[in-house]
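User:
Hi there, any thoughts?
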Amino acid sequence: LMNVIFGMIIDAFGQLRDEKNANEEDAMNVCFICGISRGEYERKAGFDAHVNNEHSVRNYIYYITYVLEKEKTESVDMTDIESYVFEHLHEGDNRWFPIG
């Protein structure tokens, strides 16, 4: 009976490890924003430059922070796009975010 339980535990940890490895592989080889894989993009241009410059996740974080701070101080002066993003952020809706 103990061997069955240990086997189930070992299998569960193995599945978690495999899932973690698959997620890390995906994070390194697929653009988070547009969903283009490294292999597809390398045929046209540099994948690392694409991920770091064109679709930098950091820039989206900066923009979200900018919109949230601007709403606190200058909500009247927000552009239509900023208002649209703020409304979706406020509602917890991520449809504005171009996830590939």
Notes: The mean pLDDT is 86.
